[in-house]
Structure formats: C-alpha cells, structure tokens
Amino acid sequence: MTQEQEKDKTIGFDSIITLIIRWWVLILAITAFFVISALIYTLLPPKQYQAQAKLSFTQNRNNKYSIGDSNLSLHAALILSPDNLNQVAEKIGIDKTISIRQLKEKISLSVNQKEKTISVSAKDIIPEKALELANAIVESYVKKNHNSVNEQFDDQIETLEKQKTDINEYLLKLESEMIGFKQSHDLIAKRNQKNYLDSVIQNTKNNLYTDKLELAASDNIVKMLIEEMKTHQQYQKNKNESSLLDYDDLKKKLIEFKIKSTALKAKVDYQEAKLEENEKKSFKIVETVADIQRNLTPIQREKKTYLKNFNKINERLDLIKWQNQQMISEVKILNYAVLTFNSKAKVGRILLVWGFSGFLIGIFIALTLTSYQNLKKQTSRRIKQS
C-alpha cells in the first residue's frame, strides 16, 4: 500500500471542510429538510404548558390510620376519580362539553412512596389554565378528604353522643327510683333509728356494767356483815350485854345493804331486760335494712353498669375526636402549582437538535458519495492500465 493510498483513507479536518464546500448544496438541503420537518412537527400540535402541584401525606406512628404505601396508591386513584374531577370541573368552570375522560387526559400523577407525596401535573395550551387546573385538583381533593373524614367521624360521634344522652337519662331515672325506693321504705329513718338504738344499747351496757360492780360490792358487804354477826353471836355467850350494841349496829347495816342489793338487783334485771329488748329491735332493723338493701342492690348494680358504659363512651368520643384531627392533618398541600414546562423553549431545542442531526446526516451522505466517486475513478484507472 502506497503512501498516497494511506492519505486517501485518512479523513482530516481539512478534508471535512473541503467536503462541506463541495457538497454544500446537498448538506444544506438535508439540514433544511430536517429543520422544516421539526418545525412542522412542533407547530402542528397546539403548544402545551404544564403546571405541577404537590400533596403531602404525613405518616403518624401513633395513629393506626397512618398513611402507608397502599393508602398512598389509593389516594392517587381517588384524586383521579370522577367524583373529584367533577368537583374540579365545577370549581374552575370547565366547559360541560369536555368529558371527564378528556379532562383526565390533561392530568398526570407521580407518587413518591419514600417522601409520602403525590405530584399532580396538569397541561393546557393556556398556562393560566394549567396552573388553575393543578391547584383546583389538589385543593378539591384536600377539601373532599377533610369532608369525608369529618362525615365518617361525625356519624360515629353523633351515634355515641345519642347513646351518651340515652344513658344519662336512664341514670337519672335510676337515681330517681333509688331515692323513691329509699323514701317509700323509710330507709333513712330506719338507719337513724338503728343508730339511736345502738347508742342506747351502748349506754345501757355501760350502766349495767357499773351497776353489776356495785351489786357485787354490796353482796360482798352483806356476806361480810353476816359473818361478823355470827362472830358476835358466839362472843355474846361469853361476854356481857354491852356487846349487844355492836351487834345491833351490824344488823342495821346488814338490813341496809340487803335493801341496797335488792334494789341494785332489780335495776340490773330491768336494764338487762331493756338491753335484750333493744338488741332485738336493733337486729330486726338490721334485717329490715338488709332486705331493703337486697332489693335496692340490683338498681345500684344496674346504675354502676350504665355509669361504666357512660365513661367508656366518653373515652371513645375523645379517641375518635383525636383520630379525626390526626387524619385531617395527614393530608395537606405541600406546594401550589408552578409552571414546569414551556413549549416555546422546547421548540427551540427541537429545531436545534433536528437541524444538527440533519447537518451530520448530510455530511455522512456527502462522504458516502465522495467515497463512491473515488472508488469509481480508481476502478476506471485500473481498467485503463490493464
């Protein structure tokens, strides 16, 4: 292979310039064809503007209704639901001739499971309408979500409030029945009578104890006097009459203490009889009160049960109201719509890319034609030489 042949196979910058000058008409025509094609491509469809808004779904670990991956996908489906899109159409006054399906074609969603966000993109040939549509979608869905959450919990709250009112009315009725039952059976008077009898019984026992001690002392004195009188009688047989005076004194004292003992014994017997009577009365009152209490116990038990249910309903109401606030706060607008795409800027890029591509293809075709011509000349030369 000669040096000249090697030079022919090498394409330098000068060769490319020469090639462009030689085939400038062809390259220009191909480039112009591509530019015109791109221009037609970009001008045939209407210019589209795109606006994007973003919804944020907060995940609350303390709430069992927290947003998960499946719930986020469900929210995305609900955003494009006919119900939500109808509200959007009414809000921004979209022409009724446009169907929901046509409106849906203007909208696209992007779900970010990691950040718990949904980006809502809307496109239109008028940038203001694209912005209005994107904002209307997110605002309508947030409002609809809040309303649905409120409706869901409002039904539960209303039901529980009604149950609470009914239970409260029944508790008042039970309280009234208890008061009426106590009054009709004179329970309070019986308890007061029982307390009075207990006080009388305790005083009687105290007095009885004192009187018995005094009676025992008096009986002991009587026994001592009798013994002393016996001793004096024995002494009289051996002594003179002067000792009879002491004996008479002892006899008087003995009679005196016997009378006292008899009186004390009668008093003790009376107090014991009275004590026994009062104890029987007290026991009877206890039995009566116990019977009344047994009849009253089911009412009290029922009241306790309803009161427990009343407290449970209050706790349930507090929980539902807390859950309501949590679920409402989980869906909010993170960003309102901003214009993210301008079709005019894209037309320029398309023309530039297509024009440069046409230019390169023109050079390639020119290079191919040049190579073909060179090959044809070399073949003719060889034929002449042979």
Short description:
The chain is 78% helix and 9% strand.
Approximate helicity band: over 70%
Number of domains: 1
Structural class: alpha+beta
> Per DSSP, what share of the residues sits in E-state strands of 2 or more residues?
5-15%
Query: Counting H and I runs of at least 4 residues, what is the number of helices?
Result: 10
Structural notes for this entry:
The chain is an alpha+beta fold and 386 residues long. The chain has one domain (18-361). 78% of the residues lie in helices and 9% in strands. It is built from ten helices and four strands; from the N terminus they run H-H-H-E-H-H-H-E-E-H-H-H-E-H. A four-stranded antiparallel beta sheet has the order 2-3-1-4. Helix 3 (24-43) runs antiparallel to helix 10, helix 5 (82-92) packs across helix 7 (127-184) and helix 7 (127-184) packs antiparallel against helix 9. The longest helix has 87 residues, at 244-330. Residues 1-9, 61-66 and 241-245 have low confidence and may be disordered.
List the helices and strands and how they pair.
Blueprint (H helix, E strand, L loop, with lengths): L2 H7 L3 H10 L1 H20 L5 E9 L11 H11 L2 H11 L7 H6 L1 E6 L4 E8 L2 H58 L2 H50 L7 H87 E12 H43 L1
Antiparallel strand pairs: 1-3, 1-4, 2-3
Helix pairs in contact: 3-10, 5-7, 7-9, 8-9
